[in-house]
Write a structure and sequence with these properties.
The chain is built from 11 helices and 12 strands. By secondary structure, the chain is α/β, with parallel strands linked by helices. The strands form 3 sheets. It has a 7-stranded mixed beta sheet, sandwiched between helices. A 3-stranded antiparallel beta sheet has the order 9-12-11.
Length: 369
């Protein structure tokens, strides 16, 4: 779908590591160089930074069916989640819902609230999946938020978040959707969630150091940050700035100081590339190739954790391997095959540059393990 010549690092490797991070785009490296050149212009460079930043906001808005002002640029998805934890201002007796397929960034900030009397309700997975019914079964009148990943980093299972949101609209609970393992690979819709968070360096093919925090204004207008910075206020030099201030009326109120412009330049480039190709077309490629991988793994005797149904998965394909970390390290050292291993499993993640030869290479080296 996209030639491997568009990336650095693929000449002598089989890169199935996309759920951790993607290989560097040649154009993204050029984008970093453009940022450094623009810095030479001093004030003019800052003007260019602002233009690239706005272009990124517009690209990201198109990817999530939102508006540019619905998006705050923060350091990473973990920071975005923590900002929401602070903004909720939960009280003793309130509860939030998480599940056992969440990455630690979607777990740890909530656990801190337990010492303040907030209940953290944990939904257990069944056969590596958590359903809408599972989560709704523990929602009550004191539930303030449900935290869920669109696609699980553990199993690759894809959540029907649109149905979850439809049902949560009948409650007081907000939906915080982590799309770190899906945005750039499959369609995402801000209109079917209250809050979206995402990192920069996985399926969006940017570099480390940037995160997206998007707010659907329908139910989040009263969600105010627990902190304040100059990037989040309407007037830096307001006459009464030493006694009061006014937040932006949109997601930008969650921004504090200058963001990572090197990452902004690379993500502006990579999101533009994703939009040019088309996420729906990328999704078709990923699902077809992932289906082929599941078939080959099952034929080789592996227990695949990822659902085979196309609507229930995206780019992550996980399979049981008790010595997953050791196996991943051996495949890296001996065969230059990159995949993630640990926690009793291996995860091979296919993106728009992968092809059937990559899958065949994986199966071949696994047969030697």
């Amino acid at each position: 779908m996209l030639s491997k010549h568009n990336f650095h690092g693929l000449d002598n490797s089989t890169w199935l590591y996309n759920g951790a991070e993607t290989p560097p785009l040649v154009g993204a490296v050029e984008a970093v160089n453009a940022y450094m050149r623009n810095r030479e212009g001093g004030p003019k460079g800052r003007e260019m930074n602002s233009e690239v930043e706005q272009s990124l906001r517009e690209n990201a808005a198109r990817l999530i069916n939102g508006r540019a002002q619905d998006i705050a640029l923060v350091s990473n998805a973990s920071e975005a989640i923590t900002l929401i934890v602070q903004a909720l201002r939960l009280q003793a007796g309130d509860n939030v819902i998480i599940n056992t397929l969440e990455f630690p960034s979607g777990v740890l900030p909530w656990l801190l609230l337990k010492e303040h009397g907030v209940e953290v309700r944990l939904v257990e997975h069944t056969d590596w999946q958590v359903t809408v019914d599972d989560m709704m079964a523990v929602v009550d009148e004191r539930t303030k938020l449900v935290m869920a990943s669109h696609v699980s980093f553990v199993s690759g299972a894809r959540l029907d978040y649109q149905e979850l949101y439809r049902r949560l609209l009948q409650t007081n609970a907000l939906l915080l959707l982590d799309v770190t393992q899906s945005l750039g690979a499959v369609p995402v819709d801000l209109q079917a969630a209250d809050i979206i968070v995402c990192s920069s360096y996985k399926w969006l093919m940017s570099i480390h150091g940037l995160g997206l925090l998007a707010l659907n204004p329908a139910r989040t207008e009263g969600l105010l940050p627990g902190s304040a910075g100059w990037r989040g206020v309407t007037d830096l030099f307001y006459p009464e700035r030493f006694s009061t201030f006014e937040y932006y009326p949109d997601a930008r109120r969650f921004e504090l100081g200058y963001p990572n412009y090197a990452a902004i330049y690379t993500m502006e480039y990579s999101t533009g590339l994703l939009l040019k190709i088309g996420v729906e077309q990328i999704e078709r490629h990923i699902l077809q190739l992932g289906g082929y991988m599941i078939q080959r793994l099952q034929e080789s005797g592996y227990t695949v954790m990822t659902p085979i149904e196309e609507g229930s998965r995206a780019g992550n394909i996980s399979f049981v391997c008790e010595n997953g970390e050791e196996t991943a390290n051996r495949l890296l050292q001996e065969h230059n095959v990159y995949l993630w291993g640990g926690d009793g499993r291996l995860r091979a993640s296919v993106h728009l540059f992968n092809d059937s030869n990559d899958v065949d290479s994986l199966i071949k080296v696994l047969s030697r393990s």
